[in-house]
């Protein structure tokens, strides 16, 4: 029986078709998806913090409204993704416990601080730009609920990326101090945004299998290359300098050459020792505790509804 199920699964993957929640799937496939989708969901939820930091201090009512909408979108992305992960048999509570107990990973990028308004521009342009590069191919992920969630998320991410670009453009057309602030933010966010794509291909334990299962479509390094290729002309329009003196396009290989990424920094952030890891988790735990009454009310409501249905 299992062999027939495995053959059916292999056939669906070979045809580049989709696996749906009720289909049989290998345990390792399920586990990989739960890992990636829950990490992704946590990233969206933790990712609300660096920007919500600026909602009360946005420079105008218009900017405040845009930033609030953006942070709210991220909450929505987290919810679609938690829902997609739930279809694989893990509960929301379990994922939340993993996060607040510090047992789950979330993207390294959200462990950096946002000291200036220009960081809102750099996050939109670089962080959401990297997210789009990484996530557009995920719209074709073999697991149906994940791929479909990514379609909507990517549409919203493009708006986020453009609003970030526009913040930087306005700063770059402003005073000398504003231009310096924008450049400083780009200097601080550039390297961490390249790290978002994950370790180099030869040190990425999950890539080969995830690509064979049509979850990932491109390797970490290939996506990093695409991202840099997208940034170079946009940096020119903005008038900002990408902080890598060795960055150049090699006509022969068709690849960007760049300086070595500081993987020690990446490892430190993943080990929980980045600039804001402790603060992000502390704040997440606090929000979870403060939300206990909402969860209680929702459970009680569901219980009463179920009781009434039996009457
Ligand atoms: N931050 C934190 N952890 C990372 C990062 C990163 N930037 N990159 C890789 N890792 C972790 C992986 O999760 C994996 O850890 P695990 O085995 O304990 O789960 C380990 O490093 C090795 O990496 P890979 O073998 O390359 O892992 P994988 O094949 O899962 O690729 C990637 C990593 C590219 C992040 C992939 O999981 C992915 O595409 N995820 C979906 C997108 C996503 O999560 N984006 C979040 C940020 S964007 C946003 O939220 C706005």
Description:
This protein has 311 residues and is mainly alpha-helical. Helix content is 67%, strand content 2%. The chain has 13 helices and two strands, in the order ααααααααααββααα. It starts with a helix and ends with a helix. Acetyl coenzyme *A binds at residues 35-36, 39-40, 43-44, 47, 105, 107-108, 131, 134-135, 195-199, 204-207, 210, 216, 220, 270.
Please name the defining characteristics of this protein.
311 residues; mainly alpha; two-stranded antiparallel sheet; 2 strands; binds acetyl coenzyme *A
What is the element layout, followed by pairings?
Layout lengths: L1 H13 L12 H20 L1 H5 L8 H26 L5 H9 L17 H18 L8 H29 L3 H20 L11 H6 L7 H19 L9 E3 L4 E3 L5 H11 L3 H14 L1 H19 L1
Antiparallel strand pairs: 1-2
Helix pairs in contact: 2-4, 4-7, 6-7, 6-8, 6-10
The structure holds acetyl coenzyme *A (ACO).
């Amino acid at each position: 029986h299992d062999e027939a199920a495995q053959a059916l699964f292999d056939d669906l993957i070979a045809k580049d078709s989709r696996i749906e929640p009720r289909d049989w799937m290998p345990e390792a496939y399920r586990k990989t998806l739960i890992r990636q989708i829950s990490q992704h969901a946590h990233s969206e939820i933790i990712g609300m913090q660096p920007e919500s930091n600026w909602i009360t201090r946005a420079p105008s009512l218009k900017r405040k409204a845009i930033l609030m909408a953006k942070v709210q979108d991220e909450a929505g992305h987290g919810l679609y993704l938690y829902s997609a992960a739930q279809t694989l048999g893990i509960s929301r509570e379990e994922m939340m416990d993993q996060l607040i107990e510090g047992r789950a990973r979330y993207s390294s990028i959200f462990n950096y601080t946002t000291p200036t308004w220009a960081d809102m521009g750099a996050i939109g342009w670089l962080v959401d730009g990297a997210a789009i590069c990484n996530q557009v191919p995920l719209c074709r992920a073999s697991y149906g609920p994940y791929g479909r969630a990514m379609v909507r998320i990517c549409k919203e991410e493009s708006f986020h990326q453009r609003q970030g670009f526009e913040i930087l453009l306005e700063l770059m057309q402003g005073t000398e101090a504003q231009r310096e602030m924008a450049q400083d933010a780009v200097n601080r966010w550039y390297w961490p945004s390249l790290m978002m794509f994950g370790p180099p291909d030869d040190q990425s334990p999950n890539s080969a299998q995830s690509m064979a299962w049509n979850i990932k479509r491109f390797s970490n390094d290939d996506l990093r290359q695409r991202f840099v290729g997208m940034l170079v002309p946009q940096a020119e329009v903005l008038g900002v300098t990408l902080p890598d003196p060795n960055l150049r396009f090699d006509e022969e290989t068709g690849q960007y050459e760049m300086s070595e990424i500081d993987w020690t920094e990446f490892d430190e952030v993943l080990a929980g020792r980045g600039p804001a890891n402790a603060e992000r988790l502390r704040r997440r735990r606090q929000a979870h505790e403060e939300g206990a009454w909402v969860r209680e009310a929702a459970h009680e409501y569901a219980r009463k509804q179920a009781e009434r249905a039996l009457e």
